[in-house]
Amino acid sequence: MALLERLRRLVLGPPPATTVGTRRPTTAAPKPGVAQEDRLRARLVADPNDARSFGALAEIVRRHAAEATTEDPLTAPAEPEERQRAADLAVWSLAEELAGNPKAWYPLIELARLSVDDDREGALRRLATAAERDPSGKALTEGLQVLRESGLPVEALGLGVGHWRVREQDPAVGRQLVLAALEAERPAEARHHLEALRLHPNEAAVAALQDELGPAVERAERRAE
User: Fold this and answer.
1) Coil, helix or strand at residue 101
2) Same domain, 141 and 69
3) What is the mean pLDDT of residues 115-131?
4) What is the extent of the structural domain holding 82?
5) What pLDDT, on the 0 to 100 scale, is given for residue 169?
6) Dmax of the chain from CA atoms?
7) C-alpha angle with apex 99: 101 to 89, nearest 5 degrees?
8) Among 94, 90, 85, 82, which residue's Cα sits nearest to residue 64?
9) CA 52/CA 21 separation, integer angstroms
């Protein structure tokens, strides 16, 4: 069986077997770890944005995928790069399956994280869709951080400016935008986003961000003079 098909079976499970002409099997004890995996899948079906359950299940499918690359005794042990690709493909398949839910935004963040280096435009589309699916701003915060961690602060600014609703969303969105502007060496834009945060009704959270980010913005402004 091809590696891709083996990995898809690990993520999606094998197709149901026919019961025609066979005896009904007796109840057997589940394999170790299967019950936990089933519980995680059930949680993600109910809430595809459960980041903790997604992370736990992703680790399981990564481990299965790494094992699948070396399970054939007739082939040489897989190189670390091959095992990593197989693990990423397994997580990709999991995230792609969950992203079909119209309320799912976290799986789209994971798909973007996996694809941003090789398919920047595709990653940006996924992050934009995730932001549109989540009015709270959590998806936008996560997406901006993915882009910043990938060395793409200008792209983060473009995504944030297009989707940030300062009065309605978590102030953490504004924090990510200020940091992205600083990383892009745009102190005036950093100042603009820092001042825009004052429109948010959570005055305590805004004051804390002003204390945290204000000195960095001031230093960037002095360097730009």
Assistant:
1) coil
2) no
3) 97
4) 1-13+35-104
5) 96
6) 83
7) 150
8) 90
9) 43
